[in-house]
From TrEMBL:
InterPro entries membership: Dimeric_a/b-barrel (IPR011008), Sec-metab_biosynth-assoc (IPR051807), YCII (IPR005545)
Residues annotated as signal peptide: none
Protein name, per record: YCII-related domain-containing protein
PANTHER family noted in UniProt: PROTEIN YCII (PTHR33606:SF3)
One of the Pfam families matching this protein, by short name: YCII
Organism: Thyridium curvatum
Superkingdom to which the source organism belongs: Eukaryota
YCII-related domain segment(s): 23-94
Amino acid sequence: MPDWLVQIPDNRDHNGDPGGEIVLQARRDNLPAHAAHNKKHIEAGHVVVSGPLLASHDDEPLRPVGSAMVWKADSESQVRAWLEEDPYAKSGIWNLAMATVTPYLCAVRVPM
């Protein structure tokens, strides 16, 4: 299966702020469901890398403003369908209209 590099910005809060408090609270509230949902994709080998995009490495605490991941899938449409099922998408955290799903060729993959 080919690799796909995915980047999804979070929606902005009512002030137009990426990573604003409303979106951050929604991330916290939905994290257990998001992790449980993705567990099956991780175990199946579909998600090989994932984590939050940050506003900065200098912020304390670190402030997520989106998500990045690498998926193994047969097609971009398959990746997008899986993303639409995610609790972060269903709860309005992610801005799926601005998501990029790019064909990706991983040259180095080192286990953690």
